[in-house]
């Protein structure tokens, strides 16, 4: 180990090789405090060249590497399992000038989403993906996990934002293609393959990102509905009639109750409803009339229209504080699934059924990005077999045409789910691609694929 | 050979193995009449299982396979080079029910774009990619070439439409993942990798495709501009102010002259202008006011607004008949490039400069999908070194941050351009991926990668 430590110090400088147990500790926990295994050491290169040097050293030493972005992952993909080098991209923080005419910007892997937003918005442009962890989540981590968030139905997930990429292969080779154009059929699409590969194929160091218009004129409405189905129908109407549609978030009675209680928010309606949808439209000109006119064609039972920025913030508070309020219930099962529209109400009914068969202390709350069918569900107080329940509900998800992992990725925690989601021939293709780019298997072992038995 | 022919006949039926020279001939020419090499035979499987059987036979015999869709390619990617089996997907024509709530449809590889449009439009949905060759181009070929067309800036290229895929590997293994959801982070993205792989990694047999709203309310305006730069600025204004923006096509003086002459169309304006932009917006409610209001913020010098469907058709005729009018000049060099917005006027000036240095008979015409920077340029009557000119203008394209192949792909005709566009390490990654999925190298040899020297 000291041999490798010395070689890494020669690449990045001794102060960026963290070997002491207490200093390393920060790199062995995720943001929720979950502890991974003990890393061999953590290393913080300051440039693409240094990342290449680190990977060359590790590859020569046959030591596994765990790439790490903003540490906001929820699937354990950036936690060491034991004995790896944690490669933190936190020092790669350069961001290029906003290319206004082309609506592009180049950013290094360690740039946070919030910094990217601050950088581009003064130019009238915005980044197409937004999510709650914006202050910590980084460009590199968001690409590696193909982050989704609230605007995916409008602008696509992270994969759709990456127009060019620079990454380092396991053996230290730098692969670079930073062309920024939309139509680019000159061979295989490397950015698309690396997006969502969770650090198992290469370490992303830089990306050329497309930008979208930043719309200051916003209209926000919270709609109450008599059923989840009515929410799904409402989505169809909005997608057809409101080109400026920017967010369509759904949540259930229990999630609203929890956030009102835990964050001391006033109830938005005099009585509870089975489902609520928070709708936002954003355009150059005020989209409120367009939005309200479209809502006339839906089964909205009641609604609150935000009159100004403060009102919009009040409506968004219900949604933004909800994950924390749900987290306080310490759910023993959590789902991050994506369902076809036809499957959303089916899945919600299945959860109700679970609760009816459980003891009185059991509860569940859910919210979701309705625009793309991504539901987050927490279930707590379960007496029954948690693993069996997870398996049953995820197999239901697959049978409905959905995905067992929507935006949180697979990491180490969901590796056992992949065979429910993908056929053996499909998994074999994944393994062939992995072997092609990382024949030694040193990049993030245990992520996406089962860990090899320890020697 | 007869051994293989018999084995293939056992898989697909003797009537679908075409070995006679005159019957095979149709599979040895592209739609422009260009002849490829002599195929060993052509085979027309009728199902995914039969495609798998064909590939198993060819793989065992070590015979190369050229997959073929609607034969509308422009880069020679579906033409035999000599001695291959041409695998036509024309009999895979099943299309599933339109899943209206989920805005999805499943289609086999041989379904034409026009058929897909006819199938989904009565349900109020549309396919996100549209292009002139719609009557012949097929789903499989459009995926293999990552087709672009006129709506790419709004809905993305073909890659963005493919939510699930079924394909057959070189050895006959069927790989299937037909999940239809937008957020699906359960491992590597197979549809994205196969899109644009031009039949070199697998043969696409079926896809699950996302649909977009079909908007009947359309507004179309032809705008005259004092410069190409003014056209690029106009695009920026439209993207910011017209969420319903559906098409933004640009063309130059000469292209308009050619189409007016060859198709006997009246000139749209009393005098010529350096650039014209055809703009269309499509929404649920009439978007004309929105569009006209946005045009007030541009440098439009003159404009023609279509008053009704017939007027829209008249305006589109200029654009749709233009490729044929340009083709009649028999250009000796043709570019299909994609440029950042900042590069469009630069490239156009470079063409003018070429013409100034050429003899009097030289001419050039260009049109483009301005929304995504995709230009099609034909140059004719050249006295100078055609290959040198091509190389110079494509290296300019790369230096401007553009792509040497926008929507036509690489095929066999542009293989020599790839080293201008991609670095050696990047090309090595492509080759590693190719070897991983097609270790024998039997899928479309000579496409994307230089053909191995004949033995």
Layout of secondary structure:
2 copies of one chain form a homodimer.
Chain A: H1 2-12, E1 17-18, H2 21-24, E2 41-43, H3 48-61, E3 65-68, E4 85-88, E5 104-108, H4 113-120, E6 125-127, H5 139-144, H6 152-155, H7 158-161, E7 162-168, E8 174-177, H8 190-194, E9 203-213, E10 217-225, H9 228-241, E11 245-252, H10 253-262, E12 275-283, H11 288-295, E13 302-305, H12 309-320, H13 322-327, E14 333-338, H14 341-357, E15 363-369, E16 374-380, H15 386-399, H16 418-421, H17 424-437
Parallel strand pairs in A: 2-4, 3-4
Antiparallel strand pairs in A: 1-2, 5-9, 6-9, 7-8, 7-9, 10-12, 10-13, 11-12, 11-15, 14-16, 15-16
Helix pairs in contact in A: 1-3, 9-11, 14-15
Structural description of this entry:
The structure is a homodimer of 455-residue chains. By secondary structure, chain A is of the alpha+beta class. Helices cover 34% and strands 20% of the residues of chain A. Chain A contains 17 helices and 16 strands. In chain A, the strands form 3 sheets. Chain A has a 7-stranded antiparallel β-sheet, sandwiched between helices. In chain A, strands 5, 6, 7, 8 and 9 form a 5-stranded antiparallel β-sheet that branches. In chain A, a hairpin with a 4-residue loop joins strand 15 (363-369) and strand 16 (374-380). In chain A, helix 1 (2-12) runs antiparallel to helix 3 (48-61) and helix 9 crosses helix 11 (288-295). The longest helix of chain A has 17 residues, at 341-357. Chain A is globular and about 70 Å long. The first copy, chain A, starts with a helix and ends in an 18-residue tail after the last helix. The mean pLDDT of chain A is 95. At the A-B interface, strand 8, helix 8, helix 9 and helix 17 of A face strand 8, helix 8, helix 9 and helix 17 of B.
